[in-house]
Amino acid sequence: MKKLLTLLLLFMFGNTVSFAQTPDINGIVYVTPGGSGDGSSWINATGNLQGAINASSVTKVFVAIGNYSLSSSIILKNNVAIYGGFDPGNGISDLDDARILPSLSVEGSALDGQNAIKVIDNTYTAGSPLTNTAIFDGFTVKNGYTLGGSGAGIYNYYASPILRNLVIKNNETGVGGGGIYNSTFSAAIISNSIIYNNTAEYGGGVRNNKSDAVLTNVIIKNNIAKMSAAGSGGGGIFNENSNIILTNVIITDNSTNFQGGGIRNLSGNPIFTNVSLVNNTAVNSATTTAMNIAGGLPVINNSVVFGTSVGNYTPQFSLIEGNTDFTNGNLDASGITDADIFTNPSAGDYTLKNSSAALNAGNNSLNSTTTDLAGNPRVYNSGTIDLGAYEYQGDPLVLPLTLISFTAKADGNQAKLQWQTANEFNNKGFEIYRSGDEGSFVKIGSVVSLQSSHAYSFTDYSPLNGNNYYKLVQIDQDGSTTELGVKKLNFQLSASYIQLYPNPTTDYLSISFGAGTFTQLQVIDLQGKVLQQYQLNAQENNKHLSLGNYPAGIYIIKLHGNAITESRKVVRR
Predict the structure, then answer these.
(1) Pairing relation of β-strands 245-252 and 214-221?
(2) Is the pLDDT score of 550 beyond 80?
(3) 474 with 542: CB under 8 angstroms?
(4) 393 to each of 112, 180, 372, how far by Cα in Å?
(5) Average pLDDT of span 165-190
(6) Would you state the pLDDT for residue 216?
(7) String of DSSP letters for 5-36
(8) How far is the C-alpha of 21 from the C-alpha of 23, rounded, in Å?
(9) Cα gap 330→340, rounded to integer Å
(10) Nearest to 485 by CA among 433, 428, 422, 424
(11) CB 250 within 8 A of CB 373
């Protein structure tokens, strides 16, 4: 009989053998890794989490930090709040203490599906649903797996629990909702959580179907939707027949093999408020790297969206790449890059920089939260709300000028930069920097301030082959500098591309050519005499030289490569 009981307990609760769970006088059951007590205190903690949740008269379950390897999915319960992050051995024993909450570097209390089962499986019925009296707070949910089912991390069916302070990571399903699947009237309330590195056929991070979930202060990052067939997509979120609400949310670095790298909205009318949607990928759909709105009409408030989008939406006080509706407080995103808005987007830092156009550009009435994604005051110094998930904690940069516009346009094989200023004061001038895709900016010119409202211009006569990034920098009289913006141009230069400037010239000559094409440059007079000769390395795409010591006349600039020789005439006046 003893062996039979042991086998039964192992079948029900994994490898932990424990007594029947007994709440303390406050209705709390205590759980530790490997615990074998009745759960009535930390000293007598149980290791049986599901048994603690199911215990008679339980109202709360306190779970110590550590890894809990599951052999069966956990099921939440109405009127039971489950809290993780306790460390009783170090004095973190109740909710008055600062719990060890999970992050991408600290797991805290971790529920591990061992790549074999769903971690949380809240399958309920219409007649007996799971309500928001069920609370799940302070856990890492990881390594869930289901091939034929949905929601490998958390599955909600007729289930609307409160889910907060979670990291949901590394879960995978062969259907939808790698991190979370909210299905059939499951209005889960999700806050202060990270949904990271989950995989599904569609809805890599989150899948909603007939479920009006609410997400506040959530990061949805690095999730993958693998399927490339019709009806799939949504690297970050796949939404169908659901009026989800997102507030203070970042959706970034997600990808899909179909449509909607960040979001695919098949139907339903979501509301996005102070959302930052940036740097997502749609492998087979270059026009929907950010959003694919196949149906429904999302409302986008106080948000920043970079990437391509298809479909209809209603923007209000937002900066959205490709949007042409500049009513309702929307900003024109033309010529603006994510580097103009965010502190360091290439490193994943989507806080706002002090010169961002998103500062003080929102509408306070559209957001009812008091803090931003980082927990900072949502409106700084009782001012106007910013766009995106983060509120800048300071006053905007006060420039010694007002930048009205900054544009970059290709004119043949030249790049023409133009900018308009007003209210200049103590402005020394401007510097122009250029980089290619490698990201290393090099100064290519400067323009002196005219000390008044003025239109300025600068021409790059020798742009790089491929992408060119032009950064405009303002310089104060005291030498301090401020970046005013970065613009991008692309040039597809032929192998035989050569440009001489100025031509005619009185002295100095700039020669531009395709990098890696030529190995030698010569200056030759009409009698064939070589006056100057230079060896070129593979990275060089221009050469500056002087003709000032030669008499007026015509000279030949000859460039030699391994399989090409090109000549151009220059006039010395």
Answers:
(1) parallel
(2) yes
(3) no
(4) 38, 32, 10
(5) 98
(6) 98
(7) HHHHHHHHHTT---PPP---TTSEEEE-TT-B
(8) 7
(9) 17
(10) 433
(11) yes
